């Protein structure tokens, strides 16, 4: 039971709760998620099972995409719709080009404050625990990148709101982005609704609901819901090697790059230092990294992920 579930998380359940539900369906199997979604948010939540839990660290590094609804003129204590309203302000008259200019100004590399109600930890405790108790903690800053921020719609009615799509790096807080829009417009804002559209290659169009998982488990078809673990590693180059090399990598022995070149397996040095390793019939085996350069270049195992 090794693979990844592309779960379409519904609102009202935490990422931890989603993992607990999968554990209930497949008891005795290791389960972990890649990239936390707030309980109120919906959408793609990759859940790794068995040996696939060992690729979580690479999965969380991938780009993420969201569709966000941001209400203008209302600021909340948490930066989202779950918090208490702390201020209401008139929203300036806005035209679409003005909003698009604002969104464009928020793209690129930037320093972002971690919201006080975030799940990020301080001294082993989530920040939201301190916030709920009224305790102050040092402001945490992180560097993130907004690759794309597109305006989908703007409704200027009684509850003015913007709907946009965001493509961003790991660690980006969309509610902090919403609050920054409110600050720049001078009227306050909060994240009203959020749907995650993708995490790397895992997209909302192919995500499965918890109900579908439960039906599959009850009917003995749960395994068919699993995607192969190397789906999370497609951003690394692939290399096919004979069983003798696979055996060396399984045993933790370094493989001279010259040996692969002499066998005609590699005619040029890959652009990526990390490689997906397959045997000659296409079965995924391991992650390996190139070390050294020139005649000293070798291939060493990072993680051997196959059962045999």
CATH superfamily of the largest domain: Pseudouridine synthase
Task: Give me the secondary-structure category.
Answer: alpha+beta
> What's the helix-strand series?
EHEEHEEEHEEEHEEHEEHEHEHEEE
Helix residue percentage:
10-25%
Task: Please tag this protein with its features.
308 residues, alpha+beta, Pseudouridine synthase, Archaeosine Trna-guanine Transglycosylase, Chain: A, domain 4, 3 domains, five-stranded mixed sheet, 21% helix, globular
Topology:
Elements: E1 3-9, H1 15-25, E2 31-33, E3 42-49, H2 56-59, E4 64-72, E5 74-76, E6 85-88, H3 96-105, E7 108-113, E8 121-122, E9 125-126, H4 127-132, E10 141-155, E11 161-168, H5 174-185, E12 189-199, E13 202-203, H6 210-218, E14 237-240, H7 243-250, E15 255-256, H8 257-262, E16 274-278, E17 284-291, E18 298-304
Parallel strand pairs: 3-12, 14-16
Antiparallel strand pairs: 1-3, 2-3, 4-11, 4-12, 5-6, 7-10, 8-9, 10-11, 12-13, 15-18, 16-17, 17-18
Helix pairs in contact: 1-6
What report would you give on this structure?
The chain is of the alpha+beta class. It folds into three domains: 3-62 and 201-232, Pseudouridine synthase (2-Layer Sandwich); 67-192, Pseudouridine synthase, CATH 3.30.2350.10; 236-304, Roll (Archaeosine Trna-guanine Transglycosylase, Chain: A, domain 4). The chain contains eight helices and 18 strands. Strands 1, 2, 3, 4, 7, 10, 11, 12 and 13 form a nine-stranded mixed β-sheet that branches. It has a five-stranded mixed β-sheet with strand order 14-16-17-18-15. A two-stranded antiparallel ribbon has the order 5-6. Strand 17 and strand 18 form a beta hairpin. The longest helix is centred in the middle third of the chain and has 12 residues, at 174-185. The two termini are 14 Å apart. The model has no long low-confidence stretch (mean pLDDT 90).
């Amino acid at each position: 039971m090794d693979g990844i579930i592309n779960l379409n998380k519904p609102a009202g359940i935490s990422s931890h709760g989603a993992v607990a539900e999968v554990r209930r369906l497949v008891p005795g199997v290791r389960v972990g998620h890649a990239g936390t979604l707030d309980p109120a948010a919906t959408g793609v939540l990759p859940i790794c099972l068995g040996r696939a839990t060992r690729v979580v660290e690479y999965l969380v590094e991938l780009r993420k995409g969201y569709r966000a609804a941001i209400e203008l003129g209302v600021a909340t204590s948490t930066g989202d719709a779950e918090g208490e309203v702390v201020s209401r302000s008139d929203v300036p008259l806005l035209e679409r080009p003005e909003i698009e200019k604002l969104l464009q100004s928020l793209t690129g590399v930037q320093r972002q404050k971690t919201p006080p109600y975030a799940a990020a930890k301080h001294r082993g405790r989530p920040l939201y625990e301190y916030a709920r108790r009224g305790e102050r903690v040092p402001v945490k800053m992180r560097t993130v990148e907004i690759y794309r921020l597109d305006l989908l719609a703007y409704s200027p009615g009684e509850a003015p709101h913007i709907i946009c799509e965001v493509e961003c790096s790991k660690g980006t807080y969309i509610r902090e982005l919403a609050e920054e829009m409110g600050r720049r417009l001078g009227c306050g804002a909060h994240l009203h609704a959020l749907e995650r559209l993708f995490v790397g290659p895992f997209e909302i169009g192919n995500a499965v609901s918890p109900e579908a998982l439960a039906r599959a488990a009850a009917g003995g078809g749960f395994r068919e819901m699993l995607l192969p673990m190397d789906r999370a590693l497609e951003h690394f180059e692939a290399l096919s090697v004979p069983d003798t090399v696979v055996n060396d990598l399984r045993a933790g022995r370094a493989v001279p790059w010259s040996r692969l070149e002499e066998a005609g397996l590699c005619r040029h040095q890959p652009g990526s230092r990390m490689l997906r390793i397959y045997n000659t019939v296409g079965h995924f085996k391991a992650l390996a990294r190139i070390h050294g350069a020139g005649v000293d270049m070798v291939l060493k195992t990072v993680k051997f992920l196959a059962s045999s």
